[in-house]
Design brief:
Blueprint lengths: L7 H8 L4 E3 L2 E3 L6 E6 L4 E7 L3 H19 L3 H17 L1 H12 L3 H22 L7 E2 L11 E9 L2 E5 L5 H14 L3 E5 L6 H12 L7 E4 L3 H9 L5 E5 L2 H15 L2 E5 L4 E5 L5 H12 L10 E7 L3 H13 L19 H16 L3 E4 L14 E4 L6 H4 L6 E7 L2 H8 L4 E2 L1 E5 L3 H7 L7 E4 L14 E2 L2 E2 L6 H6 E9 L1
Bound molecules: nicotinamide-adenine-dinucleotide.
The site of nicotinamide-adenine-dinucleotide (NAD) has 29 residues, from helix 8 and helix 9.
């Protein structure tokens, strides 16, 4: 066992008071309510974070308005340099940030290192390159000239203003960085409201952002529950919300944003993602694919698959092989870097999963493997495989956001496509086959924002990401984010 020893810098950070990052400084919030941050691996409280009061939300927004002005004076090349600096600092402090993240979220330390630090740095560098490439266009107006006068026109891409980035607990650092990077390269300032379960790492990153050369007020962090997020959206001084989280909260956020002042909103929500396996795929490849799609980070990934469709001729041998593989997974402390399966992120979530297990039993699903909370300290649940009876069973329709793979057999490809589309959600899906021609014919039929073929869950900063149907509005990554973080201004000139 390679148990990670906590760095002195992590222990020192945990001891300091936490509340907000306001105008370049870490300050403790005076709102009164203290929210505990609990390590889900052992149930111990590792820190408290002050929830911001209404007056503190006002102060943060005021700082961000000033930050927006000062960031507007910084050239695109300088903005790019700051983001590159921040990426370097994330890596230089990588072990410290990874340990903090693992303590607050229960994420395996290797996943914290690779995604919360490594991928966050990759995203920052990708976006840094965009800072110098955001342009408008010139247009020759179509209207006729009546008296010999002429017209020309052009468009400007202008930053939308102060962005509120609301972040969930599952990848609290990487998702915060998506929002920070999109805002900063387009010339916006940004206020991050992390999840009340996982607020610590982004507070530390905000300190590093000052060392990277970011002016005060351009990145602020304010902590608290959903009411703080709502106060930020409703505030007259904010211009846009970039939200990542669950569908019900996303709908409430979208409604608040529209009611407040037609605040611009990007909504990256959950779903009930499908993976479909054609019978030409070997059982071995299918089993590896299912582990990748459904069990990475205990299934707590918005894009993870939870509905698995396998050809009827293969379902029994495939489930046998899958169970054999899952039995070898080493369940253990997330700070043991040989662990392969850790806790879920909080006790409420563990209870929610226990409720889904009970419901599945009540609907007479076959629990092929797992289906229980693990009897040890912390928020552990078993990796679980379920065979459903029908497409309308709860575990085929509701997002568990846990390590729960539910299977249904199909008989032909038309049925596979219709089952994959049988959901109000459409964030992602994967199709597994060696027959590329078949895959290319099926791709247009599948209703999702991201479709993977022979892979699942790989997010790349160059490839746009977002949901169709009830899985969201808007896109992040690639060039797609520019539309959502800027306003298009048209200028017409007569001469
Ligand atoms: P959640 O919706 O409960 O909370 C997300 C954030 O919203 C938190 O910071 C919370 O404090 C805040 N919030 C709650 N109520 C609010 C309100 N009324 N106004 C403003 N803010 C409010 O989600 P969660 O449980 O933290 O995360 C899990 C969910 O996130 C899953 O459904 C998952 O699929 C989804 N998710 C989606 C993506 C994506 O990119 N599409 C990525 C990760 C997670």
């Amino acid at each position: 066992m390679a148990y990670v020893s906590l760095l002195p810098s992590v222990q020192a950070f945990l001891r300091q008071p936490h509340g907000m990052f306001l105008h370049g400084c870490s300050v403790s919030a005076k709102g009164g309510k203290l929210l505990p941050v609990v390590n889900p691996a052992d149930g111990q409280t590792i820190a408290h974070v002050g929830q911001a009061s209404g007056a503190e939300v006002d102060a943060v927004v005021e700082s961000s308005r000033q930050g927006f002005k000062s960031w507007g004076l910084v050239t695109p090349a300088q903005r790019s340099a700051v983001l590159f600096n921040l990426a370097d600092l994330l890596e230089a402090h990588g072990e410290e940030l990874a340990q903090l993240e693992t303590l607050q979220s229960g994420k395996l330390i290797n996943i914290s290192r690779a995604f919360e630090v490594g991928q966050a740095a990759n995203f920052l560098r990708y976006y840094a390159g965009w800072a110098t490439k955001i342009t408008g266009e010139t247009i020759t107006p179509s209207i006729p000239s009546f008296n010999g006068e002429r017209y020309t026109a052009f468009t400007l891409r202008e930053p939308v203003g102060v962005v509120v980035g609301i972040v969930p607990w599952n990848f609290s650092t990487m998702i915060a960085i998506w929002k920070v990077a999109s805002a900063l390269v387009t010339g916006c300032s940004v206020i991050i409201k992390p999840s009340e379960f996982t607020p610590l790492t982004i507070l530390r990153i905000a300190e590093l952002a000052m060392d990277a050369g970011l002016p005060p007020g351009v990145l602020n962090v304010v902590c608290g529950d959903g009411s703080v997020g709502k106060a930020l959206i409703d505030h007259p001084g904010t211009n846009k919300v970039s939200f990542t989280g669950s569908v019900p909260t996303g709908i409430a956020v979208g409604a608040s944003a529209m009611q407040a002042k037609l605040t611009r909103a990007t909504l990256e929500l959950g779903g009930k993602n499908a993976a479909g396996f054609l019978p030409d795929v070997s059982l071995e490849k299918a089993v590896s694919g299912i582990i990748e799609a459904g069990f990475l980070h205990s299934g707590q990934i918005c894009a993870a698959a939870e509905r698995f469709y396998v050809h009827r001729s293969q379902i029994d041998p495939l489930l046998d092989q899958l169970v054999t593989r899952l039995k070898t997974l080493k369940i253990g402390s997330p700070l043991d870097d040989t662990s392969e399966f850790g806790p879920v992120t909080n006790a409420q979530h563990q209870q929610k999963l226990a409720h889904y297990f009970a419901q599945s039993r009540a609907q007479n699903n076959t629990i092929v493997y797992g289906g229980n909370v693990i009897d040890r300290p912390g928020c552990y649940v078993e990796p679980t495989v379920i065979l459903a009876n029908s497409a309308s069973d709860t575990l085929m329709t509701e997002e568990t956001f846990g390590p729960v793979a539910t299977f249904l057999p199909y008989d032909d490809e038309d049925e596979l496509v219709s089952l994959m589309n049988d959901s109000p959600y459409g964030l992602s899906a994967s199709l597994w086959t060696n027959d590329l021609a078949k895959a290319l014919r099926m791709i247009p039929e599948i209703q999702v924002g991201t479709l993977w073929v022979n892979m699942h869950t790989l997010l790349d900063p160059a490839v746009p990401f977002g949901g169709v149907k009830s899985s969201g509005m808007g896109r992040e990554f690639g060039g797609a984010f520019i539309e959502d973080f800027t306003e298009l201004k048209s200028v017409m000139i007569r001469y």
